[in-house]
Amino acid sequence: MLTIVSALRAETEPIIQAMPRVEALPCGAGSLRRYRHFDLLRVGVGEQRAVQSFKAYLERYRPSQVVLMGFAGALNAQVSIGQVFAIEKIIHAGSSQTLALPLPETFGRLARASLLTVAKALTDGGEKNKFREQFKTDLVDMESFYLAALCHERHIECFALKGVSDLADSAANMQFKKNFKSVSLILFETLKSILQIEK
User: Would you say the C-alpha torsion 174, 175, 180, 185 has a positive or negative sign?
Assistant: First the structure.
Protein backbone atom coordinates (compact mmCIF):
# COMPACT_ATOMS: atom_id res chain seq x y z
CA MET A 1 0.00 0.00 0.00
CA LEU A 2 1.18 3.49 -0.86
CA THR A 3 0.92 6.28 1.72
CA ILE A 4 1.34 9.94 0.76
CA VAL A 5 2.36 12.05 3.75
CA SER A 6 2.18 15.83 4.05
CA ALA A 7 2.36 18.36 6.87
CA LEU A 8 -0.33 20.75 5.62
CA ARG A 9 -3.70 20.22 4.02
CA ALA A 10 -2.75 22.90 1.48
CA GLU A 11 0.00 20.63 0.13
CA THR A 12 -2.49 17.97 -0.94
CA GLU A 13 -5.63 20.04 -1.50
CA PRO A 14 -5.69 19.22 -5.25
CA ILE A 15 -5.78 15.49 -4.40
CA ILE A 16 -8.60 16.05 -1.91
CA GLN A 17 -10.59 18.03 -4.47
CA ALA A 18 -9.98 15.69 -7.41
CA MET A 19 -10.41 12.28 -5.84
CA PRO A 20 -13.38 10.93 -3.85
CA ARG A 21 -12.19 9.39 -0.60
CA VAL A 22 -13.42 6.11 0.83
CA GLU A 23 -13.27 7.32 4.44
CA ALA A 24 -11.74 10.02 6.65
CA LEU A 25 -10.31 9.26 10.07
CA PRO A 26 -8.41 11.12 12.83
CA CYS A 27 -4.79 10.13 13.23
CA GLY A 28 -2.78 11.59 16.10
CA ALA A 29 -2.57 15.35 15.64
CA GLY A 30 -3.37 14.97 11.94
CA SER A 31 -5.92 13.28 9.72
CA LEU A 32 -6.12 10.27 7.41
CA ARG A 33 -8.03 10.00 4.15
CA ARG A 34 -8.29 6.53 2.72
CA TYR A 35 -8.64 5.99 -1.03
CA ARG A 36 -8.90 2.82 -3.09
CA HIS A 37 -5.23 2.71 -4.05
CA PHE A 38 -3.46 4.85 -1.46
CA ASP A 39 -3.71 6.58 1.90
CA LEU A 40 -3.32 10.34 2.30
CA LEU A 41 -1.98 11.28 5.72
CA ARG A 42 -1.67 14.83 7.05
CA VAL A 43 0.66 14.85 10.06
CA GLY A 44 0.83 18.52 11.06
CA VAL A 45 3.66 21.04 11.19
CA GLY A 46 6.89 20.55 13.16
CA GLU A 47 8.64 17.58 14.74
CA GLN A 48 6.29 16.86 17.64
CA ARG A 49 3.00 16.81 15.72
CA ALA A 50 4.45 15.08 12.69
CA VAL A 51 6.07 12.29 14.69
CA GLN A 52 3.01 11.77 16.88
CA SER A 53 0.67 11.50 13.90
CA PHE A 54 2.96 9.28 11.83
CA LYS A 55 3.62 6.92 14.73
CA ALA A 56 -0.12 6.66 15.35
CA TYR A 57 -0.60 5.74 11.72
CA LEU A 58 2.22 3.19 11.65
CA GLU A 59 0.86 1.48 14.75
CA ARG A 60 -2.29 0.58 12.80
CA TYR A 61 -1.13 0.30 9.19
CA ARG A 62 1.87 -1.09 7.36
CA PRO A 63 2.50 0.78 4.09
CA SER A 64 4.89 -0.77 1.62
CA GLN A 65 5.91 2.67 0.32
CA VAL A 66 5.74 6.20 1.69
CA VAL A 67 6.00 9.40 -0.33
CA LEU A 68 6.74 12.55 1.65
CA MET A 69 5.12 15.27 -0.40
CA GLY A 70 4.98 18.96 0.34
CA PHE A 71 6.43 22.44 0.29
CA ALA A 72 10.02 23.47 0.94
CA GLY A 73 11.96 26.70 1.07
CA ALA A 74 14.94 27.28 -1.21
CA LEU A 75 18.44 27.52 0.26
CA ASN A 76 20.23 27.26 -3.07
CA ALA A 77 20.13 30.53 -5.02
CA GLN A 78 19.79 28.55 -8.28
CA VAL A 79 16.44 27.11 -7.17
CA SER A 80 13.21 28.83 -8.24
CA ILE A 81 9.72 28.93 -6.75
CA GLY A 82 7.50 26.35 -8.42
CA GLN A 83 10.22 23.79 -9.11
CA VAL A 84 9.62 20.21 -7.94
CA PHE A 85 12.50 18.01 -6.83
CA ALA A 86 13.10 14.38 -5.99
CA ILE A 87 14.96 14.35 -2.69
CA GLU A 88 18.09 12.19 -2.60
CA LYS A 89 19.17 12.94 0.97
CA ILE A 90 17.85 14.67 4.09
CA ILE A 91 20.06 16.23 6.75
CA HIS A 92 19.00 17.03 10.32
CA ALA A 93 20.25 20.53 11.18
CA GLY A 94 20.61 19.79 14.90
CA SER A 95 22.66 16.60 14.70
CA SER A 96 24.01 16.73 11.11
CA GLN A 97 22.76 13.17 10.69
CA THR A 98 22.07 12.30 7.05
CA LEU A 99 19.49 9.93 5.57
CA ALA A 100 19.83 8.81 1.96
CA LEU A 101 16.58 8.25 0.08
CA PRO A 102 16.09 5.95 -2.91
CA LEU A 103 15.23 7.40 -6.29
CA PRO A 104 12.91 5.03 -8.19
CA GLU A 105 12.98 4.83 -11.98
CA THR A 106 9.69 6.72 -12.17
CA PHE A 107 11.49 9.75 -10.70
CA GLY A 108 13.90 9.68 -13.62
CA ARG A 109 12.99 13.01 -15.24
CA LEU A 110 12.86 14.98 -11.99
CA ALA A 111 15.69 17.19 -10.82
CA ARG A 112 17.49 15.95 -7.68
CA ALA A 113 17.97 17.97 -4.52
CA SER A 114 19.17 17.68 -0.94
CA LEU A 115 16.92 18.74 1.93
CA LEU A 116 17.68 20.19 5.36
CA THR A 117 15.19 19.74 8.21
CA VAL A 118 15.23 22.58 10.76
CA ALA A 119 13.36 23.31 13.98
CA LYS A 120 11.57 26.45 12.82
CA ALA A 121 10.66 28.15 9.57
CA LEU A 122 13.45 30.20 7.98
CA THR A 123 12.41 33.81 7.38
CA ASP A 124 15.79 35.50 7.69
CA GLY A 125 18.28 35.84 4.87
CA GLY A 126 21.29 35.71 7.17
CA GLU A 127 20.12 32.49 8.80
CA LYS A 128 19.38 31.03 5.39
CA ASN A 129 22.90 31.78 4.19
CA LYS A 130 24.38 30.28 7.36
CA PHE A 131 22.54 26.99 6.85
CA ARG A 132 23.39 26.91 3.15
CA GLU A 133 27.07 27.43 3.88
CA GLN A 134 27.16 24.85 6.66
CA PHE A 135 25.15 22.03 5.07
CA LYS A 136 25.36 22.73 1.31
CA THR A 137 21.72 21.68 0.89
CA ASP A 138 19.29 22.94 -1.73
CA LEU A 139 16.00 23.01 0.19
CA VAL A 140 14.69 23.32 3.74
CA ASP A 141 11.63 22.07 5.66
CA MET A 142 10.61 21.19 9.22
CA GLU A 143 9.40 17.57 9.19
CA SER A 144 10.90 15.30 6.53
CA PHE A 145 13.93 14.03 8.42
CA TYR A 146 11.81 12.73 11.29
CA LEU A 147 9.30 11.04 9.00
CA ALA A 148 12.00 9.45 6.86
CA ALA A 149 13.79 8.23 10.00
CA LEU A 150 10.61 6.46 11.18
CA CYS A 151 10.39 4.76 7.78
CA HIS A 152 14.02 3.69 7.95
CA GLU A 153 13.54 2.23 11.43
CA ARG A 154 10.64 0.13 10.14
CA HIS A 155 12.27 -0.79 6.82
CA ILE A 156 9.59 1.01 4.83
CA GLU A 157 10.63 2.34 1.43
CA CYS A 158 10.50 6.13 1.59
CA PHE A 159 10.67 8.70 -1.20
CA ALA A 160 10.27 12.46 -1.08
CA LEU A 161 8.90 15.06 -3.50
CA LYS A 162 9.24 18.73 -2.62
CA GLY A 163 7.83 21.79 -4.35
CA VAL A 164 9.51 25.14 -3.73
CA SER A 165 7.01 27.57 -2.19
CA ASP A 166 9.36 30.34 -1.01
CA LEU A 167 12.98 31.46 -0.83
CA ALA A 168 13.37 31.02 2.96
CA ASP A 169 14.21 34.69 3.49
CA SER A 170 12.54 37.79 4.93
CA ALA A 171 9.86 37.64 2.22
CA ALA A 172 9.11 33.94 2.79
CA ASN A 173 5.68 34.42 4.37
CA MET A 174 4.49 36.68 1.56
CA GLN A 175 5.95 34.37 -1.08
CA PHE A 176 4.27 31.35 0.49
CA LYS A 177 0.84 33.00 0.57
CA LYS A 178 1.22 34.01 -3.06
CA ASN A 179 2.48 30.70 -4.38
CA PHE A 180 1.21 27.78 -2.29
CA LYS A 181 -1.87 27.07 -4.43
CA SER A 182 0.02 26.97 -7.70
CA VAL A 183 2.85 24.92 -6.19
CA SER A 184 0.39 22.38 -4.76
CA LEU A 185 -1.10 21.94 -8.25
CA ILE A 186 2.35 21.37 -9.74
CA LEU A 187 3.08 18.79 -7.03
CA PHE A 188 -0.20 17.02 -7.76
CA GLU A 189 0.43 16.84 -11.50
CA THR A 190 3.96 15.57 -10.86
CA LEU A 191 2.71 12.94 -8.44
CA LYS A 192 0.05 11.74 -10.89
CA SER A 193 2.54 11.43 -13.72
CA ILE A 194 5.20 9.49 -11.84
CA LEU A 195 3.07 7.30 -9.56
CA GLN A 196 0.01 6.94 -11.79
CA ILE A 197 -2.36 7.29 -8.87
CA GLU A 198 -5.99 6.65 -9.73
CA LYS A 199 -9.36 7.61 -8.34
Answer: positive
